[in-house]
Amino acid sequence: MAENPMTAREYSMLKRGVRVLTRLQTPIYKLTRGRLCGTLFGKDVCLVTMTGAKSGKRITRPVMYVPSGQDVLVIGSLGGAPKSPLWVKNLLANPDVEIQHKGEKRKLRARLAGPEEKERLWPTAVEHYPAYADYQARTDRDIPLFVCEPASN
After folding, report:
1. DSSP character for 84?
2. pLDDT in the model for residue 1
3. In this structure, which long-range contacts are made by residues 41-44, counting pairs with CB atoms below 8 Å and at least 24 apart in sequence?
4. CATH number for the domain harbouring residue 12
5. Band (40; pLDDT cuts 50, 70, 90)
6. Cα gap 62→129, rounded to integer Å
7. What is the pLDDT of residues 49-73, one digit of tens each?
8. pLDDT in tens, 122-148
9. The domain containing residue 51 runs over which residues?
10. By C-alpha distance, which of 83, 90, 19, 85 is closest to 54?
11. Count of structural domains, the chain
12. How many Cβ atoms are within 10 Å of 37's Cβ, its own excluded?
């Protein structure tokens, strides 16, 4: 059982807050190359541009920037909500992404880390953003961790 699970009201408020933050943060980040809106809670943010699983449209979402060697880890935590963020389905269906960190853009391929790999990489995610540990404790779902890496030729 999760410690202090999120209530339905908290989840609803979180979803609305994330929606508003995304609409404000994304265009400002793009315009300023991350000089403005490039951090959240004192930690670096990146933009992940992906293709919608249903719509086929390009969608950009700000997420915490978690570098891991040449790769970037993308964590579907949604603050420890009972459900994963909707963009998780996009990455599963269409793994080719563009990640912008500050002024640098990279084309990468996202893949869901398996249990052993996630166990190895999770401490890196928590080191970059310690709240991930709290989010995992708050939910019974397994928070998805994606490894975004250069696509093999």
Report:
1. -
2. 67
3. 41/129, 41/131, 43/128, 43/129, 44/101, 44/102, 44/128
4. 2.30.110.10
5. confident
6. 14
7. 999 999 999 999 999 999 999 999 9
8. 999 999 999 999 999 999 999 999 999
9. 8-149
10. 90
11. 1
12. 19
